[in-house]
Every structure is written in C-alpha cells, then in structure tokens.
Write a structure and sequence with these properties.
single chain; alpha+beta; Phosphatase 2c, domain 1; six-stranded antiparallel β-sheet; 7 helices; 11 strands; 34% helix; PPM-type-like_dom_sf; Protein-serine/threonine phosphatase; PPM-type_phosphatase-like_dom; protein serine/threonine phosphatase activity
Length: 270
C-alpha cells in the first residue's frame, strides 16, 4: 500500500431560498476522481444537466482507467494506442460530458439552454504522492489549504472575473456585482467547450476543496479558511464530513441564497 492515500467527503444542500437543488457532486475513489457541478436552466433542466455531466465525466474516467490497466497488463485490444495522460483523460471526459448535456438539451424544448459548471480533481492513484490535476469550466471553484493557508487555484470563467482581471472593477465591486452569475463558459451550452486544466504537486496533508458558488458567494475566503484549519491533522473521513457540514451551515447562516455543494479531499499518511 502507498504511504499516502486520498480520503474524501462531500455534501450538498439546496439552501434557504431555492426550491430545488441543481448542484451535483460525485467521486470515484479508486480512480482518484472527484467532481462538482452547478446546473442552470428552466424547470428541472439544471438538475438534469449537473447530474448528467457528473455521471458522464466519471464514467469516461473509469473507462479510460480500465483501458489503460488492461493494456498495461497485456489484455488490451492491441490497437497500439498509448496510455492517456491525466490531462488527456480529463479533457476527454469533459468533452464527453459536454456532448451528453448538449445533445440532451436538443431533445426537448424544456431542456433548451440548459448547462452546468464543472470543477474536477484527478489524482491518479499510482501517482498519488506526486501530482494532482484540476479542471474547470464556469465558476465552480477549487481551493487548496496548505500549511494553514487557503489559496484559490481556479479562476472563474465569468464576466465579473474578466472585468476584475482587466482592472475595470475592484474586488469589493465584484463581490456585489449584479452580473456575478454571468459565466462565459459552461458544459452543454455549445457543441464544444474548452476546459482549463492545471497540474499541481501534492504535499503531505494538503486539503483540496471543490465548491459551487453557493459557498463562495455567501462565505468569505477567510471564513472558509477558518473552518478548514480547524480540521484535525491527520484528518479522517469523519473529520472531512464534519467540515463539509460546517461549510454548508456557514453558507446558510449567511443567507443560503443558492444551492451549496462542497467536496473535500485530503492527502493523509497510512
């Protein structure tokens, strides 16, 4: 067994204002894959989009992992294809999720215009002590807590983020902008999508947070950091689960204006 392993926990809540929950979260621990989606669209379309994207994304990651394992063991189909890199696996899975949601949106007028954000983490089990790969589309975020410091690793694909980075508005103005929900990329809104993918080196006791904007709009980074630094080290799955509930409670305490979904993954020693 590896000297290190990833443990995780996740939770989702509809909040105090919305009638339904259009967020989705899922994990495939054996593949080291984790995903959070925040759907959009009329009626139940957002819920369908987020669930379909998350399921398709993980299904393709499992498939590519199984194919790579079969080829490595000499049980492949002999087509000579090289094993996919983590970046290629992430990109392929996201493009598959995009196609699934886009095609579904064209089947009925009630699904027209539906889409979803997606933020994902892939930590290949064989490489768990070395690297983690992140991918996102939209404004769902990934944060990392390292040595007690919280860092936002993803940049929102949103109009407000573009204005902020161009120096057109201040962070304080961005936080209250009426346009902060306008995203510039989404899964399923177009036939193709360009995910943003990045690689980071894992370090012992790193803690990663995937979250929908229900958390980040209602809870300041400083409060998120305070909740995460209170997690015991080394952490257990129960500790992570308790922290997930604390994050959701904070969002609801601050208004619960949107669905809130959080997923925590931590690197711990056996």
């Amino acid at each position: 067994m590896s000297a290190n392993q990833l443990i995780h926990a996740m939770s989702s809540h509809r909040g105090l204002v919305r009638r339904g929950n259009e967020d989705a979260c899922s994990a495939c621990a054996e593949a080291g894959a984790f995903v959070v989606c925040d759907g959009m669209g009329g009626a139940a379309a957002g819920e369908v989009a987020s669930q379909l994207a998350a399921e398709t994304f993980l299904s393709h990651l499992r498939l590519s992992r199984n194919e790579d394992s079969a080829n490595a063991n000499g049980n492949g189909n002999g087509n000579g294809h090289h094993a996919l890199t983590p970046q290629e696996r992430l990109c392929t899975a996201i493009l598959a999720a995009n196609q699934a949601v886009y095609q579904h949106s064209r089947q009925s007028s009630k699904f027209s215009g539906m889409g979803t954000t997606l933020v994902a983490m892939l930590a290949p089990v064989a490489d768990v002590a070395a690297s983690v790969w992140l991918a996102h589309v939209g404004d769902s975020r990934c944060y990392r807590l390292r040595y007690g410091h919280l860092q936002q690793l993803t940049h929102d694909h949103s109009l407000v983020e573009e204005q902020l980075r161009a120096g057109q508005i201040t962070p304080a103005q961005a936080a209250i902008s009426p346009m902060r929900n306008l995203i510039t990329r989404a899964i399923g809104s177009r036939p193709s999508v360009e995910p943003e993918i990045q690689r980071h080196h894992l370090q012992p006791r790193d803690l990663y947070l995937l979250a929908s904007d229900g958390l980040t709009h209602d809870v300041a980074d400083s409060e998120i950091e305070s909740i995460l630094t209170a997690i015991p080290s080394p952490a257990t799955p129960a500790d992570l689960s308790q922290a997930c509930e604390a994050l959701i409670a904070a969002a609801n305490r601050n208004g619960g204006h949107d669905n809130t979904t959080v997923l925590l993954a931590a690197l711990v020693s056996d």
